[in-house]
Write a structure and sequence with these properties.
heterodimer, A: Rossmann fold, two-stranded antiparallel sheet, B: alpha+beta, Butyryl-Coa Dehydrogenase, subunit A, domain 1, Butyryl-CoA Dehydrogenase, subunit A, domain 2, Butyryl-CoA Dehydrogenase, subunit A, domain 3, 3 domains, 4-stranded mixed β-sheet, 4-stranded antiparallel β-sheet, about 15% strand
């Protein structure tokens, strides 16, 4: 089984702060993490390899610091990691990103299964993986909550999709692309032995010329969608403890609620 | 001079803190309240490679260095002292001494099951009437053929009721004081070996602490660690490992206390402003940060010395003394910042304060460490070379 795991590095939305550079990544842009959905991607890919053998290649499109996400992937147990990074690729929209990643997948070569997360938590479009499947001409099975079976010899995969009010069991031929949701598994932590290997790993970086792409075909100029992200307002919550007996406390509470124009 | 953690160390730190946040914090308060040992954590820690983090790969360890052992200890005690204690005892006081003092045959025989967590191990030195005064121990071992018959009682033994393996110390000679002490590796299930748990501890309630009773336990000669009479030196060298994890763990506890205090001081208002704006609260926060920074420096220096294979008894003692006293003060200040709420077990700083008191007592009381430091300064104490020194960390040896 040749498995490709699509991984993105995203801002840590749990630690949003005014210091962040919009929703983009930058050296000053705040803490960055593996897109949480892609932790399930990596676990699915690694479990599939553990069951059926073969190789997992983690593929990431992003700025140079996105290599950190791939180090985490290596520490979790993927076999290889490739970073697609070129300054001219910055601000590519979903479709352009999909085209870049398809060029990288074609360079990797034959594959049996591509795994992605249901979305990335920054853009949250859930579109890129769908577009990759369409551009590659392979079946897409999205929102997979359970991989029921995978038969490498019959070249089929049966998966349960998590829909809004139902679960749908789908059988597809391989190669295919699946996107996974958090119900599918519990991602492992990087192991110490994995960390040792990851820290020493050299991650190849593929640029436009490595992928046979013209600079005019990538980046903001080639994209139909431009982004202007706004951070949610920073919530300022306070806790105020009211001392005293029930009657006094209730009176003070009502006064405070009126003062704050809640009632 | 390089104060920067390597990429590998940063990844270890991140993973350990994630583990502590996701696996320990959600349940540890209940374990502490009920005085129960979190048995379910052991296989998870073993799967991560924690149980043998700095043992060589050839003995099924993870092949990491001593800085990594410090980071692991720090991250675990950020959540709770009891979990760090497991590593301190299992690895620092049992597996590492076998690595340092054991024959190659003993290393091959005992270390893999310890490194993978298949066996959990403890260390029995303290007795009901002999703590800091090790020479006062009354445990005895008499030789009969190629077997020793070991008798005695050990007290305040971490993991005594959980462990499968026991490193215990007993006198093979009554006349020679500390030079009559010998180290033995015992196994659960052997005739005459019983254990129990001590109840009613002030802190570290999620750790198992108890006693070991030995009544003529037959111990084969193959299970003697080191030479006859070498037990005291072995015990003291064990403490160089465990005290390092205690010191590093205390830094982790201080970091938790600071984070909790800063968060609370930002949201709690008195007299119309967050308490973090009051100068005397700022002073408490600044002092916490000062202790963390200085403690971390002391711990990292010890890790660096250990990696280089340099004897570090004095530096480890200093780090342990400073960091545990600092953690006690910091946890107390954290409770103070939290006010009445800090006095409740709804907030973790209360648990950390109770836990912190134990570490200024075990692994050498603060008073013992002060005597040691003074003796070094006056020249009354020097560290003579050991027959078996802990080797310097060599990646080629550790990881191949």
């Amino acid at each position: 089984m040749n498995i490709i795991a699509l991984v993105k590095q995203t801002p840590d939305t749990a630690q949003l702060s005014a210091a962040m550079d919009g929703m983009r990544l930058s050296a000053e842009g705040g803490p960055r993490i593996v897109n949480p959905w892609d932790e399930y991607t990596l676990e699915t890919a690694i479990q599939t390899r553990e069951e059926h053998g073969g190789k997992v290649t983690a593929l990431c499109l992003g700025p140079p610091e996105a290599a950190d996400a791939l180090k985490t992937a290596l520490a979790m147990g993927v076999d290889e990691a490739i970073l697609v990074s070129d300054p001219v690729m910055a601000d590519s929209d979903c479709l352009t990103s999909a085209r870049i990643l398809v060029a990288a997948i074609r360079r990797i070569g034959a594959f049996d299964l591509i795994v992605g997360g249901r979305a990335a938590i920054d853009g949250n479009t859930a579109a890129t993986a769908v577009q990759i499947a369409a551009l590659l001409g392979v079946p897409l099975v999205s929102y997979v909550a359970d991989l029921k079976s995978l038969d490498p010899s019959a070249r089929t995969i049966t998966a349960v999709r998590l829909l809004e009010r139902a679960r749908e069991t789908v059988t597809s031929r391989l190669p295919a692309l699946i996107t996974v949701v958090k119900e599918i598994n519990e991602p492992r932590y990087p192991s110490l032995i994995g960390i040792r290997k990851a820290a020493r790993a050299s991650i190849p970086v593929w640029k436009c010329e490595d992928l046979g792409l013209d600079a005019s075909a990538v980046g903001a100029g080639a994209s139909k969608v431009a982004w202007q992200a706004e951070l949610p307002p920073i919530r300022e919550a306070n806790v105020e403890m009211i001392d005293g007996g029930p009657e006094d406390a209730a009176r003070i509470l009502v006064d405070r609620l009126i003062e704050e124009k809640v009632i | 001079m390089d104060f920067e953690l390597s990429e590998e160390h940063k990844m270890v730190e991140q993973m350990v803190y994630d583990f502590a946040r996701n696996e320990i914090l959600p349940t540890i308060r209940e374990h502490d309240r009920n005085g129960t040992f979190p048995h379910d954590l052991l296989p998870k820690m073993a799967a991560q490679g924690f149980m043998g983090i700095c043992l060589p790969v050839r003995y099924d360890g993870a092949g990491m260095d001593f800085i990594s052992l410090g980071l692991l200890s720090e991250g675990l005690e950020w959540a709770d002292s009891s979990v760090r204690e497991t590593i301190a005892v299992h690895l620092g006081l049992h597996a590492l001494p076998i690595f340092q003092w054991g024959t190659e045959e003993q290393k091959k025989r005992f270390l893999p099951a310890l490194a993978t967590g298949e066996h959990i191990a403890c260390f029995g030195l303290t007795e009901p009437g002999a703590g800091s005064d090790v020479a006062a121990m009354t445990s005895r071992a008499r030789k009969k053929g190629d077997t020793y018959l070991v008798s005695g009682e050990k007290m305040w033994i971490t993991l005594s009721d959980v462990a499968d393996r026991f490193l215990v110390f007993a006198k093979t000679s009554q006349e020679e004081g500390t030079r009559g002490i010998t180290a033995f590796l015992l196994e659960r299930g052997w005739d005459g070996l019983t254990t129990g748990t001590i109840k009613g501890k002030m802190g570290v309630r999620a750790s198992n602490t108890g006693w070991i009773n030995m009544d003529e336990v037959p111990v084969p000669e193959t299970h003697r660690l080191g030479e006859e009479g070498e037990g005291f030196k072995i015990a003291m060298s064990c403490l160089d490992n465990a005290r390092y994890t205690v010191a590093a763990g205390a830094v982790g506890m201080m970091k938790y206390c600071l984070e909790a205090s800063v968060s609370y001081a930002r949201q709690r208002k008195t007299f119309g402003q967050p308490i973090g704006d009051h100068q005397l609260v700022k002073q408490l926060i600044a002092q916490m940060k000062q202790r963390i920074d200085l403690g971390e420096l002391a711990v990292r220096k010890v890790g660096w010395l250990k990696n280089r294979g340099v004897r570090n008894t004095r530096e480890t003692s200093m780090a342990k003394w400073y960091c545990t006293e600092s953690a006690f003060a910091t946890a107390s200040d954290a409770v103070q910042v939290h006010g009445a709420y800090g006095y409740s077990d709804e907030y973790d700083v209360e648990r950390h304060l109770r836990n912190s008191k134990s570490a200024v007592i075990y692994e050498g009381t603060s008073q013992i460490h002060q005597l040691m430091q003074a003796d070094y300064v006056f020249g009354n104490r020097t560290d003579r070379p050991l027959r078996c020194e802990m080797p310097a960390f060599d990646p080629d040896y550790w990881q191949n």
